[in-house]
Amino acid sequence: MRTSLIEIEQIENWLLEQGDIQDRLVTEAKILLSSELKEKVYWQSKSYRLVQCYGRDKLLQEIKAVEKQLFHSNKHHSFQQRIRSIFKF
Amino acid sequence: MTVIDQVSVHSRSEIIAAWYIDTFPLFAAFVQRKGGDLEEAKEVFQEAIVIYYEKLTATNFCPEKTDKAYLLGTAKNRWFKYSAKRNLFEGLSQIDIAEEKEQGPITQKLLHYLKLTGEKCMDMLQAFYYEKLDMAQLAKRFGYKSERSATVQKYKCLEKVRDEVKRKSLSYEDFID
Question: Which ipTM value was assigned to this complex?
Answer without folding.
Answer: 0.89
